[in-house]
């Protein structure tokens, strides 16, 4: 009888430890998210299931072109790409990103840009000053984010600059559907 009781206690302990580990991992390290909508096409598709790395920004800062998940509202998280960092002046002119006056390539958009006719624009011209807040440069602890599908994305052009403390984490790994399994550039 005692042996059977000890086995049950061992199983209960193991399950409690596993549950605690799962909660710690989910809350502090990694979380699943599902892409909702077309705002990150062609990079991410509606329904892509991804893993959010929450740990990356506990020890570091976002980098230009990171794909991040952030709290857009109390109940809704968005997935967008970091375009502008603290201290940057951002401008788009003729589908070219300028950071502090220097043109910067966006290789993840090249396929879409190549398909445009001469009189079409993929990213409408704007300057940082055109965004809510009328900033000359992005202030400390904020980033400017855009969706890769520039004509169909609710991003910093509408939401304003995103405080870094609202960023949940970085996402680069699709685990479902299986035909899209892998890392995203």
UniProtKB/TrEMBL annotation:
It comes from the Bacteria. Keywords: Hydrolase, Membrane, Protease, Transmembrane, Transmembrane helix. SUPFAM superfamilies: LexA/Signal peptidase. Pfam families: Peptidase_S26. Residues 8-176 form the Peptidase S26 domain. PANTHER family: CHLOROPLAST PROCESSING PEPTIDASE, SIGNAL PEPTIDASE I. This is Signal peptidase I. The gene is lepB.
């Amino acid at each position: 009888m005692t042996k059977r009781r000890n086995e049950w206690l061992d199983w209960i302990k193991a399950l409690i430890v596993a549950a605690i580990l799962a909660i710690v991992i989910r809350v502090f390290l990694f979380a699943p998210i599902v892409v909702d909508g077309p705002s990150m096409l062609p990079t991410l598709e509606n329904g892509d299931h991804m893993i959010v790395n929450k740990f990356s920004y506990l020890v570091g800062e976002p980098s230009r072109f990171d794909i991040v998940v952030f709290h857009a509202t109390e109940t809704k998280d968005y997935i967008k790409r970091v375009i502008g960092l603290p201290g940057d002046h951002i401008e788009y002119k003729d589908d070219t990103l300028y950071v502090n006056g220097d043109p910067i390539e966006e290789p993840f958009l090249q396929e879409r840009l190549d398909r445009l006719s001469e009189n079409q624009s993929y990213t409408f011209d704007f300057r940082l000053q055109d965004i809510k807040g009328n900033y000359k440069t992005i202030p400390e602890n904020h980033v400017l984010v855009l969706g890769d599908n520039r004509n169909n994305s609710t991003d910093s052009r509408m939401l304003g600059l995103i405080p870094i403390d609202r960023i949940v984490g970085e996402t680069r790994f699709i685990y479902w559907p299986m035909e899209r399994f892998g890392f995203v550039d």
